[in-house]
Design goal:
Elements lengths: L1 E6 L4 H12 L2 E7 L14 E3 L5 H11 L3 E4 L6 H6 L1 H21 L4 E7 L22 H18 L4 E7 L1 E3 L17 H10 L5 E4 L11 E2 L1 E3 H16 L5 E5 L5 E2 H12 L5 E4 L8 E2 L4 H6 L9 H14 L3
Parallel strand pairs: 1-2, 1-4, 2-3, 4-5, 5-6, 6-11, 7-10, 8-13, 9-14
Antiparallel strand pairs: 9-12
Helix pairs in contact: 1-7, 2-4, 4-5, 6-10, 8-10
The structure holds nicotinamide-adenine-dinucleotide (NAD) and uridine-5'-diphosphate-glucose.
Length: about 325
């Protein structure tokens, strides 16, 4: 069985990807310092509880499991926190990530899949954002993700490391069998906050601004189900293991929904009104972020299957009602 090192495999997207790696015949070996992840989420392979800066842990793990490829989910990813504490973001998302890449190279791992984000684009100039859109981030989170993308480019020029950069749009939803889901603390994402507000385990929902230049005044996002996102990683891995070169891919659907549409869909699923209030805009939120997914659709054996808003909200709601961690 081919083993894959999954940095951040105890987190929301990493754990879901471990599940799909195992279903596709790989052994996911998680390395995670459990700073924002959960030991209970590591169910489909071993957990090496260590920081990605730990060169000894990586060397030992690569040798023990004969690792040929790695995925790098381990990062700090709160936009607001990054504005308050950019040093933390440069330290973990760039410093630790570069150390991780160099450990991989030292130990002969030649394939790396990296979790990047639509936040690298900053304020979009076009309705649909392709990978060639200028990358001018407007917060330290996006800037640090872009910095590591650029580091990967130069590191690959001087080594035999190949990389796939996946720029996710809005990861959302939960495992279809209810085994893993989103349990961030603090939670800042719209859909889990909406679910918590409905269940009564969180504060009432606040819409961050209704005066955007969109049809109903609320921001538009491209919501991609976490199961589809995980499948994109497996497809990218299969392409790399069959000799595919380095590349950058948006992971989104190409279809946007406003915040008000998300709330209306949840209301129709639950057959009741969801109370909310209109608050001020959140600093750093663009009006519209929607992927042009042409490249991934044409290059990888992948297309979104579960990213309709109903499936996203239904699975997220089930998870928030029954979550195991
Ligand atoms: N959630 C989203 O909507 C979204 C969108 C775009 C990109 N991303 C990126 O996807 C990745 C995964 O996001 P997530 O929502 O699953 O986050 P998460 O916080 O749930 O998971 C991150 C995991 O990495 C671990 N980790 C962090 N720093 C580490 C370190 N130095 N050493 C070892 N382990 C470390 C954490 O303990 C956690 O288990 C991140 O890189 C994030 O920036 C997420
Ligand atoms: O309580 C809330 C929370 C969010 N929103 C709005 O809902 C939308 C979605 O917000 P959120 O779920 O926080 O995601 P984003 O801020 O769009 O960011 C996510 O999606 C981006 C890609 O599109 C990634 O770069 C980020 O890492 C990821 O957190 C935005 O318009 C927010 O203004 C609200 O109105 N109220």
């Amino acid at each position: 069985m081919k083993a894959v090192l999954v940095a951040g495999g105890a987190g929301y997207i990493g754990a879901q990807t471990c599940k799909q790696l195992a279903a596709s015949g790989f052994l996911p070996v998680t390395i995670d310092n459990i700073s924002t992840g959960y030991r209970q989420a590591v169910k489909w392979g071993p957990l090496v509880e260590a920081d990605i800066r730990d060169r000894y842990a990586i060397a030992g793990t690569v040798a023990k499991y004969d690792i040929r490829a790695a995925m790098h989910f381990a990062a700090c990813s709160l936009v607001g926190e990054s504005m308050q504490n950019p040093v933390k973001y440069y330290d973990n998302n760039v410093g630790a990530a570069v150390s991780f890449a160099s450990s991989l190279i030292e130990n002969g791992v030649k394939n790396l899949i990296f979790s990047s984000t639509a936040a690298v684009y900053g304020l979009p100039k076009t309705m649909l954002i392709s990978e060639d859109h200028p990358a001018i981030p407007i917060n330290p989170y996006g800037a640090t993700k872009l910095a590591f993308e650029q580091a990967l480019h130069w590191i690959a020029c001087s080594s035999d490391l190949r990389f796939t950069i996946l720029r996710y749009f809005n990861a959302s939803g939960a495992d279809l069998d209810g085994e893993v889901g989103e349990s961030h603390d603090p939670e800042t994402h719209l859909i889990p906050l909406l679910c918590k507000a409905v269940i009564g385990s969180g504060a009432p929902l606040s819409i961050f601004g209704s005066d955007y230049p969109t049809p109903d005044g609320t921001p538009i996002r491209d919501y991609i189900h976490v199961v589809d996102l995980a499948a994109a990683h497996v497809a990218a891995l299969q392409r790399m293991l069959s000799g595919g070169g380095s590349g950058i891919f948006n992971v989104g659907t190409g279809v946007g929904a406003t915040v008000a549409e998300v709330i209306r869909t949840a209301e129709s699923i639950l057959a009741r009104e969801i109370p909310y209030r209109i608050g001020p805009r959140r600093e750093g939120d663009p009006a519209v972020l929607v992927a042009d997914p042409s490249r991934i659709l044409h290059t990888l054996d992948w297309s979104p299957r579960f990213s309709d808003l109903r499936t996203i909200i239904q699975t997220a709601m089930w998870w928030q009602e029954n979550r195991f961690y």
